[in-house]
Amino acid sequence: MSLYVDEYPEEAKVIKATFLVSFVALGIGAFFGLIQGLHRTGFVRILPSTDYYTILTGHGVLLALVFTIFYLLGLFTWAVTRSLESPLPNIKLTWAWFGLTTTGATFAAIAIVAGLFPSLDMSADVLYTFYAPLQAHPLFYVGLAMFIIGTWMAGADWFLAFRKWRSEHPDERIPLQTFMVLTTMVMWYLSTLGVAISVVFFFIPWSLGFIDTINPLLTRTLFWYFGHPVVYFWLMPAYLLWYTVLPKLSGGRLFSDPLARVVFVLFLLLSTPVGIHHQYLDPGIAEGFKFIAMTNTMFLLLPSLLTAFTVVASMEHGARQRGGKGYLRWLGVLPWRDPAFTGMALAGLMFAAGGFSGMINAGMNINYLVHNTLWVPGHFHLTVGTAVALTMMAGAYWLVPQLTGRRLYSRPIGLFQVVTWFVGMVLMSNAMHRAGLLGIPRRTAEPQYQSFDFTATIGSVAELRAQIAIGAALLFLSVVLFLFNILLSSIEDPIEMPVDGRIPAPLSGASGSPVVLDNLKLWTAIAAILVILAYVIPLASIIRDAGLFGRTVAVPVLIDGFNLLLGVIA
Amino acid sequence: MEIHEYEKFWLAASLLLIVGIIATVTYGAVGVGVSMIDDKGGTIDPKAVDQHPKFGNPGVYKTGANEYDVYVVAKQFVYQPGTNEPIVVPANSTLTFHVTSADVIHGFEVVGTNANTMVIPGQIATFTVEVSGPREYGILCNEYCGAGHHGMEGTLKVVPEDEFNATAGGA
């Protein structure tokens, strides 16, 4: 038995590089989050409210796209090489996609942060959703395009590794981790088509002045065509860790390999034809299409509910291997002192809560009450902000030593860090959900208005603000502790075996499951058909109504907008 | 393929939950009559909103006994009417809102109610609500629309029937 870094030294270097980009983005994004949490609650204000949106855009892009996806690029590289027991076929290709994604992400970040310096005449405070006709600097869109193409190349790298493996192992089942990576990437190829078309064919030419007008509903629909599946692109690395690493950390093994495959196939099929559920309140889309998106969305609960079962069953199995007894007493013997385990377990718990608030969002009539209120960020700070982010941080405590050959600097600090994240998120997201029910909007620098107040039925608005501010402070503290812990780990002295990197075989293996589960071509074809059924008619209708390029002219952010604001106040 | 006993039970319960949720939403739409914002409002040239017969002079138009059309134009960072003067409607009436944007994407949320829609340039959002006794509501923009987004608000005033005057040109 040897460590990952000893077996795959070249891949370990790439993974360390992706994690470095990921964690730098995490640090900056979390700092922006702290500024926002304190600003909109009115506790500490270091910027004018007009700059709040630059910080908000940075927070969204750096955390939701850069932190999560760079972590995924590293994790998937680890998972493919580890489970195929073979290095990547062409390490130059690997470094090429790393270079392209990193350059793209840097370009987008420069365009955003430049918005804080008016003399630079560059800005991109169009938020993570970049809805037209608000217009960002071309560098922002070019950066996004490079980033997406880089992820496509990474997928190609993993598929090539798989093809090589398949030629050498024609009759074997696809190893589970590779199966998870490949199904996730097929989903990603299908779903990024929307945003790629939007950026390459509309936004880049439009921001460079080659076309004058844009169809806002079309580009918005193309954004959400990608904007919901991207959620699963964040979530799948967390699921990969829950299915393959968490059971081991619990002291046991995965409960069921076949069900894990079914879950990933369901995500591939159902996660793309649902984006219209972000557009329940959009004019210009018929009710029937919204209903179809809702039905798909609700069935998408199934793979997550199955995951909840399998993950808890695997943890229980682990606990019983460690001598756990009773209906619930087994919970006590789980390795709660291990930050990697505790972080993932708490993340899973929060995901259950986030799943329930997601069901509310997805119910298209109840959605009227919560649409675009603080309820929504309350929801996704539980899902991506905790289920994904906390799982990734916890996973790093177990993965980074395998990549560096050095032990984790401090397990107690790690444990304190994951618990701080949990507590901070309980306060912040609970308050956000409740504030949303009062009608307090999301994405606004000043949630106080001149001519009306929000009335709380339980507690008070002041108490909700305090919870959000305290939560934001705890979350930032947690990120700082995480980054220092990882940083100090990287300067520890190398040791023989800092962590046990083995993953035991599942309790029910793949051999008992139908071979059709491994037929990626079939699942890709069905997924594509579902996308066509859900999207072709609504897109055709949007284009027929307002034209491919629409009639709406660009509105540059900040400069003109700010003058207009002054006009309104005067 | 081996599926464990408890797993089967969980699978069945999950499917029941999913079908149950879809059933409640369907009942809401078919039984209670909660309809979605959809494409019935039609489209408009966002550069020529002021030439539209109603959006050119936005306000409250009487369309029948206790029935009114309310035309609102949203633009950075005001509602017309709503911001500089309140939207005034009579008590105990049925209001059909028609909202459009002259520039970017906005939101239109009557605070504390389920009257809530996206306002997309080129599209007209249409929805119908009922108001009862006199009361004042806040309106806010809940979709980021530029640097002054947080200042975009308005008021909806429900007044007694005898205090109400429809917008000139109304039926």
Automatic annotation (TrEMBL), chain A:
It comes from Haladaptatus paucihalophilus DX253. This is Cytochrome c oxidase subunit 1. It holds the Pfam family COX1. It is found in: Membrane. Belongs to the heme-copper respiratory oxidase family. GO terms for cellular component: membrane. SUPFAM superfamilies: Cytochrome c oxidase subunit I-like. The keyword Electron transport applies. One of its GO terms (molecular function) is heme binding. Keywords: Electron transport, Heme, Iron, Membrane, Metal-binding, Respiratory chain, Transmembrane, Transmembrane helix, Transport. Gene3D superfamilies: Cytochrome c oxidase-like, subunit I domain (1.20.210.10). It is a multi-pass membrane protein. PANTHER family: CYTOCHROME C OXIDASE SUBUNIT 1 (PTHR10422), CYTOCHROME C OXIDASE SUBUNIT I (PTHR10422:SF40). One of its GO terms (biological process) is aerobic respiration. The chain crosses the membrane at residues 20-39, 59-81, 93-118, 138-160, 181-204, 224-246, 258-278, 298-319, 340-360, 380-400, 412-432, 468-488, 522-543, 549-569. InterPro entries: Ba3-like_Oxidase_I (IPR033943), Cyt_c_oxase-like_su1_dom (IPR023616), Cyt_c_oxase-like_su1_sf (IPR036927), Cyt_C_Oxase_1 (IPR000883), Cyt_c_Oxase_su1_BS (IPR023615). Residues 19-517 form the Cytochrome oxidase subunit I profile domain.
Automatic annotation (TrEMBL), chain B:
SUPFAM superfamilies: Cupredoxins. GO terms for cellular component: membrane. It holds the Pfam family COX2. It is found in: Cell envelope. CDD domains: ba3_CcO_II_C. Gene3D superfamilies: Cupredoxins - blue copper proteins. One of its GO terms (molecular function) is cytochrome-c oxidase activity. The keyword DNA damage does not apply. Keywords: Copper, Membrane, Metal-binding, Transmembrane, Transmembrane helix. This is Ba3-type terminal oxidase subunit II.
